[in-house]
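Support case: flavin-adenine dinucleotide complex. Customer-provided input:
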Amino acid sequence: MATIFWFRRDLRVQDHPALNQAIVSAKQSDSRVFAVVSARDYQDQAELSPGRRESLLQSWRELNASLGDALTVLAEPIAGIKSIAQREGVTEVHVSAAYDTRSVSFMKEARSELESDGLKLVVGAGNYAVAPGKVRKPDGTPYRVYTPFYKGWSELAWNPPVALEPGARWVRASEHLGFDSSEYGSEFAGVTTQSPSIRAGEAYALRTLQRFIDRGALAGYQDDRNRADLSGTSHLSHALAHGEIHPRTILARLGDSAGEVTFAKEIAWREFYADVLWHNPNSLTEYLEPRFAKMRYDDGTELGETRLRAWKEGRTGYPMVDAGMRQLLAEGWMHNRVRMIVASFLVKDLHLEWQRGADWFETWLTDFDPASNAHGWQWTAGCGTDASPYYRVFNPILQGLKFDPNGDYVRKYLPELRHISGTAVHEPWLSIGFDSAGYPLPIVDHVTERNESLARLEELKSL
Ligand SMILES: Cc1cc2nc3c(=O)[nH]c(=O)nc-3n(C[C@H](O)[C@H](O)[C@H](O)COP(=O)(O)OP(=O)(O)OC[C@H]3O[C@@H](n4cnc5c(N)ncnc54)[C@H](O)[C@@H]3O)c2cc1C
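Agent response - structure generated as follows:
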């Protein structure tokens, strides 16, 4: 007898309720356990950047080591699982619950395919302290505004972290791989190189949390988290997105100081957006506020496409925007404040639809999370949940002066501007004798485009 555990975006062994449930069930039936993963679970987007691929492979590599070489990479998970099941007498396939739009529909397909082969798909608890769909208004309807959601969320209790259930009989991949190698992905076996800039895996996630606590960052988190030039945030987003750490493992380490409460509120933003996406599955790609779909955008025009390219390459001539976009290309990560600045710029200065930016982020962000990405974009574009109204247009220069007050962040990612000291780097064209060293002048005038944006909003109101 055998059981399969299908790892998806839950690449860890500690504090893993669904995995523990699978192990308990396998022990009861004296079954061996197969562990499988598939790149298919990450490839919503046709193309993953080299950084995203590398971080995923590293995470798998670490998980494989934790399981004692038991991880099998499947090219096509449903076909691969069926094949193992037929050969090994598997009756149950265990998986963590997933709530994002594409996972929900893929899991539906998987359930029906596996059931047609007589296999039971057992879905265990997922990677949220409170599962999406659970926090409700007193009348039972879902929240669309964060603050009351947070109040409801924080009043619900969640279980404390749990350790890995002992006694699983993992089947080493070498014991069964190769009986039909065409069904198995080759990516995993072939990977030998490791990029020094990408660090991933459960052990690294736990160390990152410990370091964040040890360096006292939580004490100033409520102030420093907005500063692009400081390392004021945890950098745990990649670990949360890959499920290398469960959010309640993090929450269990937090007390009630101002910094710790603010940090817990950020974890709650992740849960809020997962909840909003769960209730509004189309909002992964469509406007949460549908009237914004009727707005006039410049997508598809020659000018619009040229500007989109400049934005992607970090060559808009606005240093704070360009530094963020270059950080994304170099590190697969971008500071939250800067994500808001570049997103506002794309939508309100370049008049392009938010989905174009969200797609680019999906290709490059190693912490890509369907709900946080779609709703981070929609919030900034003014068409999403609560707070940020469309007419709030970020000024990229003032944002730079406020959140990179010495210009260090810009100089770090824009080598062309390193010769400009202090805050002058946020408006390099004003420096006397400015030698651009190939850095472009602004591709648009912010004040003009802000007015244009507001005019388009007025048009929308009159439709
Ligand atoms: C346009 C846009 C796109 C975004 N896309 C993503 C994405 O694909 N994946 C992703 O994880 N986050 C996304 N975010 C949210 C946020 O930028 C990142 O979570 C954060 O920068 C990660 O850095 P950190 O782990 O150091 O954050 P910390 O400040 O240390 O926060 C701790 C954790 O809380 C969560 N969190 C923090 N801020 C937010 C937020 N605003 N929304 C949702 N969760 C949050 C994250 O899981 C984060 O790891 C996006 C934000 C914007 C504005």
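Residues 225, 233-237, 240-241, 266-267, 269-270, 273, 336, 339-340, 343, 361, 365, 367-369, 372-373, 376-377, 380 surround flavin-adenine dinucleotide (CB under 6 Å).

Case will auto-close in a few days if no follow-up is received.
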